[in-house]
Protein: 11-beta-hydroxysteroid dehydrogenase-like 5
Organism: Anisodus tanguticus
Amino acid sequence: MMMNLVNSVLNFVVPPASLLMLAFSWPALSFINTCEWLYNSFFGEDMEDKVVIITGASSGIGEQIAYEYAKKKAHLVLVARRENRLWGISENARALGAKSVLITAADVVKEADCRRFITETVNLYGRDYSICKFHQSLIFKAEMETDVTEYYLYLDIRVLFHFSRIKWKYFLDHLVNTASLGHTFYLEEATDTNVFPILMDINFWGNVYPTYVALPYLRQSRGRIIVNASVESWLPLPRMSLYSAAKAALVNFYETLRFEVDGDVGVTIATHGWIGTEMTGGRFMLEEGAEMQWKEEREVSLSFPSRNGVTCPSLLTSTICSVNSV
C-alpha cells in the first residue's frame, strides 16, 4: 500500500519537475556551449603544419583520429604493425587535407622500434627556431645599416660563427597513443596464459615506450601527449579483466607524468565509452610482425551501448585542440 502511494506521488511530481528543470537549464547550457565555441574559435590550437605521430593508426580510433588531424592540415606520421593498411589510410588523409603523411611499420612494445620512428619523424620534420630568429635580427640590422659592404662582411662572419656553435633542435607537436588490444573472455576460460603479458605489453608498455622516447622533443615544442585510456579504467566490465587492469595502470602512469613534466608538456587522457571498432566485434586479436593473426575468435553477444567509431575521434580531436593543458 505504501509503495503504491510513493509510486503515485513520484508519477505525479517527477515529469513536470523534469520539464521545469530542463526549461531552466537549457538556456544556460546553450550559453555555455556558445561561449566554448567562441573561445575555441579564437584561442584553440592551430594544427596547420604541426607534426603529429599516431600509433595504432591502422584501424579504429587511431585511423579516425588521423582523418581528423588531416582535416586540420597537420603533418601526419602513422605507425602500426599492419603497414598494408596504412597505405590506404595515408591516401585518405592526404585527400582530407594532410600536408604530408609518413607511414612506418613498427611494434610499439619494442623500444628500438619506437626510437626508429620518432627519429625518422624529427629528422624529416625538424625545425630550428633559433636560426629563424637569428635571420630576423640580421634582416632588421640590414635595414638600419648605411654601409652595405660593411653589413655583408659582418653578416658573413656572424653566420659562420653562429653555425659553428649552433645546437640543432627538432620538434614534435603531438604524440597520440591509440595502440590497444582487447579481449572478450572470462579469466577462468583462458586456455593460453601466454596472451596475458601480450595484453599488458600492448595496452601499457605500448604507450610508455613511445612517450619515453618522444618526451625530450615534446618538451622542446611544449607539445602534447594524447592517451587512449578507455572508461574500463574505472568502470570494470565483464570479459575484460586484463584490459581494464592495463588501462587503469595507464591512467595512473599519465596522471603521475603530468606532475613530472610540470606544464612543459600537455597530457590529455581520453576515457571514452564503448566504441564500435574491430575490437568490439567480440574477437581477440594478436598481431605478429606486420601480419594480423586471429589467435582466438569468439563471437559474443555484446549488450553494451557503443558510440560510433567516427564521432568519438572527432570530439576527442576538437577537445585536444581547444585546451591549453588537460
The first strand starts at residue 51 and ends at 55. The beta strands are 51-55, 75-80, 100-105, 174-177, 224-228, 266-270, 283-288, 291-297. The first helix runs from residue 2 to 43.
